[in-house]
Structures are given as C-alpha cells and as structure tokens.
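Backbone shape codes:
===
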Amino acid sequence: MQLRLHGSVRAGRSVRLAITLTCCLAPVHGQSAWTDFGPAPIANGPYTGRVAAIATSRTKADTWFVGGADGGVFRTDDAGVTWRAIGDAIPTTATGALCVHPGDDNTIWVGTGEANFAHHSRYGLGIAKTVDGGVSWVVYGSNEFAGRCIARICVDPKNPAKLFAASTPAGGFLPARSAAREHPLRNGPVGVFRSLDGGEHWTQLAGGLPTGIAATDLVIDPANPTTLYAAIGDIFGNANNGIYKTTDGGASWSKLGGGLPSGTAGRVSLAICASRPQRLVAIFVNPASSSGGSATTQGVYLTDDSGATWSAKTAAGSFQSTYGWYLSVAAIHPTAPDTCYTGGLSLRRSTNGGASFSTITPPHVDLHALEFDAAGRLVCGNDGGVHVSSNLGSSWLARNDGLGLIQLYAGMSVDPAQPDRVWGGFQDNGSCQRIGPRTWSSVLGGDGGCTAIDPSGQRVFVENQGTGNLYRSVNGGGSFSRSSSGISGSDRNCFLPPFAIDASNASRMVYGTQRIYESTNGGTSWIPISGDLTNGGTAAIHGLAIAPSDGRFVYVKTNDGNVQVTEDGGTTWNKRLMGVPGWVRTTRPFAIDPGDPRHAWLAVGAFSTSFEGGARLLETTDAGRTWLRRSATLPDTPVHCVAIDTRHSPAFVYVGTDRGVFRSVDGGEIFHHYGVDLPNVPVIDMHIDPARSRIVVATQGRGVHEARLLARDEVFARPTIR
C-alpha cells in the first residue's frame, strides 16, 4: 500500500473568534444557479425534515423561528403558513438552539451544531447573531464552541446583553463522536458558558458546576434571572450528571437532590414555568449503551419550591423507547402551571401537575422541540417538521409547506427515462419519489436509504434501516416487494446498507453488509462473494461502487477505514488503504472513470487533521495501488462524495462537502465553489447527467437541488462570502 501526496499540506487552524458574513457580487468562472427540487414538504403527511430548535416572538403571536438539524434557520410571520430561510449566510446549517431577544424580533442568536447525539448530529461552528432579522450575521465563540454543539441559549430578560449557553460534544456513539467529522476542536470544553456583551465573548462557568460533561439543557428564572438551572447529562452516564442551580448568575452552583435520582443517569432535560418559576419539570434518561440502546425513561420529576424538593411523576411512564439520548424535551404551559409536557418517541401531557398523563403525539413521532407562542399555541418540532396545536395538543395541524429541511442519506437515483423523477431515502421519512416541482411522495416508511433504478426505469430498488430490508418494484415504482433472498439478516450493517446496479449488466447488483453479496438475476436472489472486508467488531461496509466499463472492478469502503478493491468480480479482494475516516453510515465516496475501471476518486469525509497529510480527496489510476492527493485547494471541510464529467480533458471534478459543491476544471489541481443559491449545507450525494448537461445533488438538510453544467470559460456573477 502506498499513498503519494500531491500538493501542499495545511495544518488545521482554529477559526477566528468572530466571522462577519456579508455578500458582494463577483464574477467567478463556471458558476450556475441551483434549482431547489424539494421536497418542501413530502406529500404524505405533509412532512419535512428534523426540526431541532424552535423560538417564538414574545409579542407577535404569528412569528416563529425554527432550526433544522442540518437545514438552517427559517422564519414565519403567519404562524407557519409560509416560511423563508433567514440563516443561509451562516457557515453551517447545523442548528441546535435558537434564542430571540425579548424586545426585538430582529435580534436572534443561533447555536450551531445539533445537540441530539446521533451520528447525524453534526458539529457546530459557534454562536451566530443577527440584529437585522437575518440580513447579516456575525459568528462568535468559534474557539469556545466549534466542533461541538449548542443545546440551549438563555437570555436574561432584564438585561439582554447577558446570555448563557449549554454545550455538548457532537454526535455520541462509536466511532466516538463521528458527527464531529474529526473537527480539530471536537475535544474542546463543554458545559455552561456566559456572555456579558450580547454574545460576542464567552466564558465557561465552573464554581461547583462540572466541566467536560455535556450540558444537555438550561433554563433561566424569568422573574429572578440570576437563578438558573443546568442539566448535566453525559448520555453514557456519569456520577456528576444531574441538575445544578445557581442563584448568583453563574458564579457558584450546587447540585440538587431532594428526591431526584441518586444513581447514575444519562441525558437530563428541563422546563420552567414562566408564570410560576418555582415549578420545574425534569426528565432523567437511563444511560445509553455504546451501541445506542437501553436509554429508556428513568423518570419524570416535578418541583414546586425551586428545586429544593422533587416528586416523581410515575404516571408519565416510559415515552422514549430505548433512545432517550436522542429524544428528550420538556415544556410547561406559560400561564397554566399544571399543564406540562414530556416528549420523546411520543408526546405525553398532564393537566393536573403530573398526577396523570395522556398521549397526544403529533402526526409524526420523535420529538425534539416544544415551545409556546405569544397566543398560547403549542409549537412542536419533530423528525417530520413542525406541528402546532391551539388546544394543548388534543389536535394538530402540520405547518411544513415551504419548509425544506429534508435530510437525505446517500443513495439518490435519477430516472434515466424521466429526468425530473428523482428517488431518495430520507432520515425518518422513508423512501420517496419526486412527482412534481418540490413535491415528493413516500413509497416506503422508516428511515429511507439507498435507491437504484435500472436503465429501463421499470426496476426500482429502495430500502429501510437494517440488514436485508431491500425492496424491488418491477413496474416503475407502482408496487414493491421484498428482494433480499439469500442475504443473512444477522449480518452487520451501517444502518442503511449500500447497494448498486452494474451499469454494464443491469441484471447484476452488489449489496454490502460486512461482506459483499451479488445478485445476477436483478435482485431475485443473492449470494456472498467476499468474506468480512472490515476489521471486525461492529464495522460494516458503508460505501461501494461498480466500475461502469467493467463490472469485475468493485470498490468498497468500510466504516472502520478500509478501502478494498476486487478486479475479478469478487474472487479476490485487495486492501488498498486503511484508516480512512468518514461518516459511519452510508456514503457515496467513490467516482470511477466510465472509460477506465482502474481510474477512481475517493472522498474523505473528515477534516484535514485526521488523515495522511490532510487528504480529503484522493485519485488513483491503478485501482488503488497508489493514490494522489487532490484536496490542497479545497477548504478544510469534510468531503462526502465525488463525481466526474469526462466529456472534458482533463475531467471536470465535482465534490460534495459540508459547505456545498466545489468544482475543478483541471483534473483536481484547483477547486472553486460551484453554483449560487445553495446554502452552506452538507452535500451527501451527486449525480452527473451529461446528456442533459446538469448535476443533481442530495443534501443533508435542504433536500435535492439541480444546476446546469457550465463550460470551463462561462462566467456567472455570484454572491461570495467574505
């Protein structure tokens, strides 16, 4: 194995403390405007993607703000009938917390990085602030928060220059903190921080408060804002987990007992009543195992004396399945203290101070955010978007039209016969097909993964999570049946196993668990053609590709870092690289020259500090025996996918990154940002369509987009970020 580095090596550097984002028009070669393909929303529901944070105006009942887990910040001024994106100039669309100035709806703080501990709970870059409603933004606290996530921001209602923030690590499970993508600051401090100047500078608070442990929630007493309560909640369990209180603005803290669990807990969540701040509700979750299970509801607790004593509310039951590390949120009605809510997989409500509870789950499960607007309506954020109730949760209305927050997994497909028909798998929103402009329809539930379409457009494949959950349609998507005969259900998987159709033989397919399966009859049956290609343990294959010109060449990447290649259809496999980082779930890391099976590109989904000389894009011309580094001129951001346009010589190279799409017109020597009107969203998959001179990309947070493929010398004026 040999890795030849091409280009200069740049060490990872911390981002400046404050980054001011403004726009100007500049002529840039080879730019094209992106067209939003949606979905916004999915017709069946209607649903959109995961909402991780909600904030509402204190004076305008119809003004709400939502933060997509990876979709950025949107605003509505008509109670969700229409939405507009206001945060696309922020350098990341990963959102964990929102806070609105109590007297000025145009002053908003955005805590970047989603603090929900999943593999897809991506890292943040700091706390962004706008004072003009989102026209311009400043990002502060990069050294304090970059590479980590913000769980909550609280503003002192009597002195809005004083803010508090709770921060957590990015991601949660093995490989440790995979959602941080190996950010150089990922291991920085977490806990509770304070700003005394409107968010420009931040100091970590100690004084009896644990440091180095995730602060999963934070509330402030609106009547006496020197009193705050912090939830310390390492999801794997820690003896220091619990609720801490300060009465002097954060100078000193004490851990609360008085009936709270004395054993080890995992994640902790909090809510405080605005009209009776002596009343708080807390959710304690059992510690998570290293694989993500066992995190059931440990208990719900209520205090009426500002935390001195707590009573267990056993009637709340268990509402978080086994993944309370991901799903945990509480709320109390601002003017009716006996009405409180606990959210997880389902939503539970009590109207008698916790003596009894009823289930009032919105149309989509998996709750992450609860907020009341100025009219007393309950606004709920979940894995299907936003739902609102005007009767305390007894009935719900979806408010997702125009809210394009869908997170796709890698594995998008474009119908060869109907170019506007696109298929994709969505986080917790199934496998869907595009049926009209920005309109999509679901064909399979669960978490949707890879899709594939044969050249006829009649044989369509979709899947949902788990080994062997592969489905086939032979009538163009009209109906589906299981297509996994021969695939062992006990094989390991990366949640959504990758698969592909051989471009030179549409009856042949490959499918990846910890090994490769092959079908030669269009998915009717499968046989293994490899042994374990990982290093063992829980690892699985998360990326694969078949050479278009010669199906004997198959490239495989495992989520424990191996790159394996076969040149004889699977009889022999050769380990070409080891230790290559990247996201642990399904990706599309390879692009293979359609005319040369030995010529391939490999995307590395991590920052430059994590792999051989900063390599984030590699090229081989000998089937992986040697590699050239092609990432020297890319920004220091993870690269998730690569596509090549070989109509040109040298080929035009396109890469999808955490900051959008970049293109090289000289074979990978120099890259430039490609296209306008695409926010700084992670691009997880891409499809080059040379016959129609277009590129279609799938994002984690803003759905699917299309742009025209421009020639080398075409010029387009685009806004550039400075």
User: Anything to note?
Assistant: The radius of gyration is 25 Å. Residues 142-145 form the longest helix (4 residues).
